[in-house]
Amino acid sequence: MTKNEFLRETLNQGRLFTAMAAHNPLSAKLAEQAGFDGIWGSGFELAASYAVPDANILSFGTHLEMMRAIASVTSIPLIADIDTGFGNAVNVRYVVPQYEAAGASAIVMEDKTFPKDTSLRAEGRQELVRIEEFQGKVAAAVAGRHDPDFVIIARTEALIAGQGQDEALRRAAAYEEAGADAILIHSKQKTPDEVLAFINAWNGRVPLVLVPTAYPELTESDIKALRKVGIVIYGNHAIRAAVGAMQTVFAKIRREEGIREVDKTLPSVQEIISLQGDAHMGDIEAKFLR
Q1: What pTM was computed for the model?
Q2: Distance between CA atoms of 208 and 223, rounded to whole angstroms?
Q3: pLDDT, tens digit, for every residue of 116-125?
Q4: Is pLDDT above 80 for 160?
Q5: Which UniProt keywords apply (predicted)?
C-alpha cells in the first residue's frame, strides 16, 4: 500500500488519522518513531525555524524543498500545509502537482487572502477571500493531482476571522461541493465549544480535520466519539518542544559555565548518528566501496 492509499483508506474507513507537525526531516523521523500515522508539514513550524513570521515570508520553493526532504526519510504520509496556495487558482493548479511529485500525500489550503497572517496571532489580519474564489482554488487543486488518492483538504478560517458558525458551515459546504476530500475547521477559542458546535451541525459527506492547539483538553478518545473527524493534527508541538529544550540546555550551560552536568541529560552522539541513517550508509559502504 502506498502512502497515499494508506491515508485515503484510513479516511474512507472512518479511523482517526493522527499527524504530528515537523519542520525538518529529523523532527519528522522522530514523529514516525513515536507512532504517529502521518506528518504535518507545518508552515508555522518552518517559518519559526527560520525565525520569521508565519505570514508567507518564506518562498514556495523553500517550503516545497523541505516537504521533499521530509518525504524522502519517512514511510508515513505527509500532509503539506500550503497556506493560501501561493496565489490564485492558476498558481494552485501549478503548485499541487509539484507537492505530489515531492512525495506529499495531501495538501491543506486555507481561505484567507495572500499574504496570510498566522491564525493564532493576537489581533492578526484574518481576511477571507470570496467563497466562489476559494471554490475555484479547491477545484484547481483537485484538477492538478495525478493520483486520485492524493487528498485535498480545504481549511476555512471563518471562526478564526470571527464570522461565526453559519458562515463557517456555508463555506465548508461550498468547498465540499468544489471537490474537497476533507474540511479543516479551525478555532482559537480556549475551549472546544465553538468547534464542537460546528461538528454537531456539520451534515456534509466528507470528514473533518481538527487542530486542537488552542483547546488541548480535547483528547483523541473525545474526537473519535464525535464520529465526524478523520484527522487530528498536532500543529506546532515539535518546534515548541525543540525551543523549550534548547532554552533549558543553553541556560544550564551558561549557568554552569560548561557542559559536564548537562551532557548527562542529552541523547548521546551515537543516537544522533543512528538517526542520521548510519546503518544504511554502512550497508552502502560494504556493498560498493572498493
Answers
A1: 0.95
A2: 10
A3: 888 877 777 8
A4: yes
A5: Hydrolase
**Do residues 96 and 87 lie in contact, with contact meaning Cβ atoms separated by under 8 Å?**
no
CATH superfamily of 3-242: Phosphoenolpyruvate-binding domains (3.20.20.60)
Helical segments of the chain, H only: 3-12, 25-34, 43-49, 60-73, 89-101, 131-144, 164-177, 193-201, 220-226, 237-256, 269-275, 278-288
Instruction: Please provide residue 173's backbone torsions phi and psi, each rounded to the nearest 5 degrees.
Output: -65, -40
Q: Does position 172 have pLDDT exceeding 80, yes or no?
A: yes
Strands 106-110 and 182-185: unpaired
Rounded average pLDDT over 75-104: 98
Q: Span 176-185, mean pLDDT?
A: 98
Question: Has 54 been annotated as catalytic?
Answer: yes
Query: Catalytic pick from 54, 83, 111, 181?
Result: 54
What pLDDT is stored for residue 122 in this prediction? 76
Cβ count near 151 (within 10 Å) = 26
Give the distance, in angstroms, between the CA of residue 125 and the centroid of all CA atoms in the same chain: 21
Q: What is the pLDDT of residue 121?
A: 79
Contact in structure between 218 and 212 (CB atoms under 8 Å):
yes
Query: Is 201 in contact with 182 (CB distance < 8 Å)?
Result: no
Instruction: Report residue 69 as a C-alpha cell.
Output: 526532504
Other CB atoms within 10 Å distance of the CB of residue 24: 17
CA–CA distance, 138 with 175 (Å, rounded to integer): 7
What gap in Å lies between CA 220 and CA 188, rounded to an integer?
A: 19
- Answer whether 193's CB lies under 8 Å from 171's CB: no
